[in-house]
Amino acid sequence: MPEESEIRTLLKRLGDSVNETLSNSSEIHERIREIRNAGYEVFITIETKIAFCSANKESYKKGDGENEKPACMNLTEHDAKFLKSLKIAIN
Fold this sequence. Notes:
Helices cover 45% and strands 0% of the residues. It is mostly helical.
């Protein structure tokens, strides 16, 4: 199991990847340019919450499937585009 410092490093790398993806998005840059051309300044704050748990054999036990239901989410077109811009595939 990774130590706390290793987990922090992994989480920082994840945050850096998300930030880099957003920073390199031509679509985001274009929308910001449009807003600025309309006479406004843009300030973007994105809050990210990341949750994780240990997946070692002792703490991860698969259920018998009897009461398990597939997770369902209602995503808007905006949600899907945002996830795609982060290179997150949805099925």
